[in-house]
Design brief:
This protein is an all-alpha fold. It is built from 15 helices and no strands. Helix content is 79%, strand content 0%. Helix 2 packs parallel to helix 7, helix 3 runs antiparallel to helix 4 and helix 6 packs across helix 14. The two termini are 24 Å apart.
């Protein structure tokens, strides 16, 4: 823990990390809050699913595109424009009860204007630390992100139950614009100059490390889609929240315990293998609440370290001009992966049985392991020392 404390003691790190988490907190509430609200307004899970899909597609598209605007307009200006648009769209969704088309369109806008807070923060981090602290910082960052997925859904449910679903959306909009404004006010952000990339949009995907990052993020997060949908189908809504939270808890513990140990080219393969072991073990007792909870906890032990390792690889491989877009493609891969995993799991549950969702997670996890294995040679070493 001393090394994590040393990272946080570096000038600006704790402040930027804290305001980043506040600005991104709405993301942890987004999926559940949109589904709850749209379903209540239109009394249709189909419309709710389409609305959430529109937001996901928008966010997947926006990552790389907005990253390209950071050098032209400056990070602070981009952040304030997109956060204002996204927050106003959330308020519109909260109060609008007309044709479903406009609600779905507003959800698309929410996704298209997702503030690129994480891309900016991760592009800035290397300038705030020493090179030997890279794995510690990205491990800490990835681990703390898990707090969004632990508390976000719980808060969305609590606000909706206590007040109404519109209140949850208004709360998200308020937190997002406030957090983004505070993040953008950091002197390191407001004075940040991002050089223009010399590559075409998407050209960075020609770099093996970025393409591998994109594909592994996609397949790894596809496992979550299968696991979360399957957990609800197998155990019911009441128990699923606690069980899924076990995965995030395991991820938090794994991040602090193992994330900084990513010092060789084989680190990512080791972490995604841990994820695969957790998913595979569920078949030993696929309907038992306690056993599924244990399996998801074991799975989580590899999650934050895997994400931290991939973020560190981008950090040491590219300069500021290209790292933001590279992180944007990683985020796009995650969003596409979750949507694919959840959709296939839903079909498997409807046409086979609830436990079929576990196969979706295992197949996606197996692909993650395979991709991590065949791309080992492209991984940069992360055990650099300061000169």
């Amino acid at each position: 823990m001393a090394s994590y404390s040393a990272v946080l003691s570096r000038p600006g790190v704790a402040r930027i990390m804290g305001t980043q988490l506040l600005g991104r907190f709405a993301f942890g509430m987004m999926s559940l809050a949109i589904v709850l609200h749209v379903q209540q307004i239109y009394n249709s899970y189909t419309i709710a699913g389409i609305a959430l899909g529109a937001e996901t597609v928008g966010a997947a598209i926006s990552g790389p595109l907005i990253a390209r605007r950071l050098s032209a307009w400056g990070p602070r200006r981009v952040l304030l424009i997109v956060a204002s648009t996204s927050s106003l769209s959330l308020v519109f969704i909260a109060f609008f009860a007309g044709a479903a088309f406009w609600t779905i369109f507003a959800c698309l806008v929410v996704g298209l204007t997702s503030p690129p807070i994480q891309q900016i923060a991760r592009s800035l981090y290397p300038s705030l630390i020493t090179s030997k602290q890279t794995s510690y910082l990205f491990s800490l960052d990835a681990t703390l992100q898990e707090l969004l997925w632990v508390f976000g859904p719980v808060l969305a449910t609590l606000i909706t139950a206590t007040y109404n679903s519109a209140s949850a959306l208004i709360f998200m909009a308020t937190v997002q614009i406030t957090g983004t404004y505070l993040f953008s006010k950091n002197p390191e952000i407001s004075g940040m100059k991002m050089p223009k990339s010399k590559r075409r949009l998407g050209g960075i995907l020609r770099k093996p490390i970025v393409l591998a990052n994109f594909l592994i993020n996609l397949t790894l997060v596809a496992t979550f889609g299968g696991a979360e949908v399957g957990t609800v189908a197998v155990l019911g809504i009441a128990a699923s929240g606690v069980v899924i939270a076990a995965l995030s808890l395991g991820s938090i513990i794994g991040g602090f315990a193992f994330g900084h140990r990513a010092t060789t080219k084989w680190a990512l393969l080791k972490f995604v293998t841990v994820v695969m072991v957790g998913y595979s073990a569920v078949f030993l007792n696929p309907t038992d609440l306690v056993w599924i909870t244990i399996c998801w906890f074991v799975t989580g032990l590899g999650v934050a370290p895997a994400f931290a390792t991939m973020a560190s690889m981008i950090s040491v491989s590219f300069g500021t001009a290209d790292s933001a877009e590279a992180y944007g493609w990683s985020n796009t891969g995650q969003l596409i992966g979750y949507a694919i995993g959840a959709a296939i799991a839903g079909v498997a549950i409807d046409h086979v049985d609830p436990q079929a969702a576990w196969f979706v997670s295992c197949i996606a996890g197996g692909l993650s392991v395979f991709l991590a294995l065949i791309t080992v040679r492209f991984n940069p070493p992360l055990n650099q020392k300061d000169s």
